[in-house]
């Protein structure tokens, strides 16, 4: 069944968690207390939308609602682009950081056994598709942290023990804890 949550999740995935589609409208209907910066940003968007609509309507030869709607829509999109670009850039930087960590991990694996390298690549794929957080910024932050922990484990742990740990189906929560688990106490479940 098509629901608003399904649409939001779909849009978050399609924009690679760079845009937070959970927020539109939710701030207006919640008991959110706006900071001065948030009020200024929203005022800028509202003012730009109204000004864009008015200017398009005023310059139009035909008049009517269509030029106003078109101008207001364009101004709305441009104003949001201006106000959202720092946040999107922050998320892109987090994505780039993840890409750099993956390159580093792959370079660490160049001399490793093929099966171990394949196992690490499966874990990387699992990390990069993991999106259990609500906010896109939190998704990218968690992915970066998980990759950092994986990179540390590859650097510091014996690879035969690490291979057993990486086969655990709870590898995301193990990486999230950050400390290398004692393999004797682990119940190994294959990926």
Please explain how this structure is put together:
The model is unreliable at 187-191 (pLDDT under 50). Helix content is 69%, strand content 0%. It has a domain at 109-191. Helix 2 packs across helix 3. By secondary structure, the chain is mainly alpha-helical.
Counting helices, strands and paired strands, the structural category is mainly alpha
Give the strand tally: 0
Number of helical segments?
Answer: 7
- Amount of beta strand: under 5%
pLDDT averaged residue by residue: 84
**CA-based gyration radius:** 23 Å
The biggest sheet amounts to:
none
Distance between the termini: 30 Å
Order of helices and strands: HHHHHHH
Low-confidence stretches: 187-191
Inertia-based shape? elongated
Work out the helicity level.
55-70%
Features:
single chain; 191 residues; mainly alpha; disordered C terminus
What's this entry about, in short?
The protein has a domain at 109-191. The protein has 7 helices and no strands.
SSE layout and pairings?
Blueprint: H1 4-14, H2 36-59, H3 65-108, H4 114-129, H5 136-156, H6 159-166, H7 171-177
Helix pairs in contact: 2-3, 3-5
């Amino acid at each position: 069944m098509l629901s608003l949550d399904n649409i939001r999740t779909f849009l978050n995935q399609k924009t690679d968690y760079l845009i937070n589609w959970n927020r539109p409208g939710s701030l207006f209907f919640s008991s959110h207390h706006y900071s001065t910066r948030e009020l200024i940003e929203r005022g800028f968007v509202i003012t730009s939308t109204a000004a864009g609509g008015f200017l398009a309507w005023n310059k139009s030869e035909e008049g009517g609602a269509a030029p106003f709607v078109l101008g207001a829509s364009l101004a709305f999109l441009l104003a949001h682009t201006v106000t959202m670009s720092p946040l999107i850039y922050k998320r892109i930087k987090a994505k780039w950081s993840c890409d750099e960590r993956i390159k580093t991990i792959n370079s660490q694996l160049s001399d490793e056994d093929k099966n171990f390298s394949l196992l690490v690549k499966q874990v990387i794929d699992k990390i990069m598709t993991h999106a259990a957080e609500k906010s896109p910024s939190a998704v990218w932050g968690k992915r970066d942290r998980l990759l950092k922990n994986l990179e540390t484990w590859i650097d510091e742990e014996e690879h035969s023990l690490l291979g057993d740990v990486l086969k655990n189906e709870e590898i995301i929560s193990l990486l999230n804890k950050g400390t290398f688990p004692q393999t004797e106490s682990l119940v190994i479940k294959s990926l």
